[in-house]
Amino acid sequence: xxxxxxxxxxxEDNPDNSTQLVSAINGLSTNGVDFQELFLQILPKNKQLTQxxxxxxxxxxxxxxxxxxxxxVSLCFVDSELGRFRQNDDLPILNKDLISRVCGDLxxxxxxxxxxxxxxxxxxLSNWTHRYVVIDRNLSFDALAQLGVNISEGFEQIRxxxxxxxAVEKDTLSQLGKILNMPEDAYSHLGLYSIGQVSAxxxxxxxxxxxxxxxxxxxxxxxxxxxxxxVLRYPGILLNTAALGxxxxxxxxxxxxxxxxxxxxxxxxxxxxFYEVEPHWWKCEIDSLLVECPNETAREYLDNLGTIDIDKxxxxxxxxxxxxxxxxxxxxxxxxxxxEVHSAGGHSWxxxxxxxxxxxxxxxxxxxxxxxx
Length: 373
Ligand SMILES: [Zn+2]
What we know:
Blueprint: E1 6-11, H1 15-30, E2 38-43, H2 57-66, E3 75-79, H3 83-87, H4 96-106, E4 110-114, H5 122-125, E5 133-136, H6 141-164, H7 172-179, H8 187-190, H9 196-207, H10 212-231, E6 238-239, H11 241-248, H12 252-257, H13 259-264, E7 281-282, H14 283-290, H15 298-305, E8 329-331, E9 336-338, E10 343-344, E11 357-360, H16 361-372
Parallel strand pairs: 1-2, 1-3, 3-4, 4-5, 8-11
Antiparallel strand pairs: 6-7, 8-9, 10-11
The protein binds zinc ion (ZN).
Zinc ion binds near residues 321 and 342.
């Protein structure tokens, strides 16, 4: 049994929203979330930030977190729009960037729920270096709470993995490989995802004279952002359902609903941090299953199993042409299969290693003039 206590700090400027979100998170803890007990603090309801106008907002928020060991929270769950903090002179001006800076130094992960999570602007599409994770707030409070808890757990898994493997100086790639339970064949591929970002951080923080515990926490947060925002989000080494459908040329919705077909690829299923947020599969493990077949196709592989009627298997449609034109790639804007002809790729703003990630031609045509600036 995992006895780790988890504490989610909800930072919300709307009392109704925070009440609903908190009760949804509490509901999870009594309905079988047996691994943890969740404690909640709401800003600014339960605690007052110091109202001394002489203290900069950033320091004010840091001091607030240090009270009652709030610097030990397992996730800071933040509303992306905190406008009411600006309207109230007694409160510091809090926003997601300030919160993520302060939390980053203390080793606290930040998850922002935002209306803009699904917009197709380049800033969002290329924000894989952000120091927080973003989720779509247009979900029910129950779904939002569940996502927050799953994300909190993902960071916790990384934190625990690092704790077991306590040497912070150890090679980041091998630490991550262990935490991700990574197949041997994936190591060189993972290194392409700008792993330098993660390795560089502790050096910067070490210079700031932080304790080994905070350093280790900060490193786990950094790894979590990198994993969530880069590796899991841009298919290459790992494939989400739409990317897997495209890669296998099977309609992703059909794939998602068929436990039999998904089961056939169970061996490749990713079981590392954030696996409960969204299923992913290791590309190298999928390849090693298909390589047994003469033409290395999913249809041959499934046909060989003898239990699946492959004639009924719908092909994946290209999101641009609406046709089964070979697909193979994943459009990061539409989150759908796309073919090479109807998409653009190889951009420097995509993480290295994201070999199956492209962007639909029609969306790219709208974005590229801005990108050219
Ligand atoms: Zn196409």
